[in-house]
Amino acid sequence: MITGIGIDIVRAQRLKRWLATPGLLERYFHPREIEACLSRGKGDAHSLAARFAAKEAFGKALGTGLAGIALKDIIIINRNNGKPEIQVVNTALGALENSGANRVHLSLTHEHEYAAAVVVLEEL
Question: How far is CA 41 from the centre of its chain?
């Protein structure tokens, strides 16, 4: 049963500014996310924007927003085949458990200057 759906869109230019501000990425992204995005070179801002949108969409899917959740505790990774996946730890894991959901689906996209994400929470 679907327990929540969230969507968000982020302008990549916003993340380009964050890239130029020392320490700002570390406030919102897990080190694995930063490493993966920066390895993409020219596409780093779009990758970060998509991941930030996914974090926001996760909060919307919970129905509670992100209050009390550290954004670094929502980790967006790519499987070997490229499929994006959300891993949650600490505060985000607690929020997911409290929601009753036990499965998270994620879709990311970006076009020109925007990146978007959709998150679906499911209880199996």
Answer: 19
